[in-house]
Amino acid sequence: MTVDDQSAVVELWQKCNLTRPWNDPEQDIAFALKGSTSTILVGKFAGKIIAAAMVGHDGHRGALYYLAIDPQFQNKGYGKMLIAEAESWLKQRGVWKINILIRNDNQHAVGFYKALGFEDNAVVSMGRKIL
Ligand SMILES: CC(C)(COP(=O)(O)OP(=O)(O)OC[C@H]1O[C@@H](n2cnc3c(N)ncnc32)[C@H](O)[C@@H]1OP(=O)(O)O)[C@@H](O)C(=O)NCCC(=O)NCCS
């Protein structure tokens, strides 16, 4: 994506219930686009953004955030296609494993990732704000 796509991407994430009051999607986009170890991939249909995902690595593992397919375009293979693009982006940078965080109440996404061969890492993910 480019900065011009920002409002369309945020709108898509909102439509897909991925935004939360404690996260600032515009700040997340700016930060992901700034460095060389992360980016945001988008998919367009008839010129309109219908898919987006943030991908990056921290020097150890690859990570994927904010994966969203417009509800009107779900179940058509676009999610799988975007994951393949994200994995290709990581592989080109030498990353050999991708981790994904899924909210506890998003069982649909769990089913999707399992269908794609992802496995439960059996870890507890914890975090806190440091800035
Ligand atoms: C999760 C999401 C990205 C999936 O995208 P999608 O385009 O609908 O999924 P696809 O059509 O590419 O599905 C790929 C495969 O997974 C399977 N699949 C998808 N969801 C599944 C589920 N809940 N359980 C089992 N299999 C599932 C499909 O049947 C398909 O299988 P196939 O390759 O054998 O045909 C989409 O539903 C979405 O944007 N959801 C809202 C946002 C969200 O929850 N994002 C994830 C945050 S962690």
Name a few traits of the molecule.
about 130 residues, alpha+beta, four-stranded mixed β-sheet, about 20% strand, globular, about 35% helix, binds coenzyme A, 4 strands
Task: Report the portion of residues in β strands.
Answer: 15-25%
Q: Return Rg in Å.
A: 14 Å
Q: Which segments are poorly predicted (pLDDT under 50) over 5 or more consecutive residues?
A: none
Q: Helix segment count? A: 4
Residues in helices, as a percent range: 25-40%
Walk me through this protein's architecture:
- The chain has four helices and four strands, in the order ααβββαβα.
- It has helices spanning 6-15, 25-34, 78-91, 107-115, and strands at residues 38-45, 48-57, 62-69, 98-100.
- A hairpin with a 2-residue loop joins strand 1 and strand 2.
- Coenzyme A is lined by residues 16, 18, 67-69, 74-80, 102, 106, 108-109, 111-112, 115.
A few lines on this structure:
The chain has 131 residues and is of the alpha+beta class. The protein has four helices and four strands, in the order ααβββαβα.
Give the helix/strand layout.
Layout: H1 6-15, H2 25-34, E1 38-45, E2 48-57, E3 62-69, H3 78-91, E4 98-100, H4 107-115
Parallel strand pairs: 3-4
Antiparallel strand pairs: 1-2, 2-3
Bound molecules: coenzyme A.
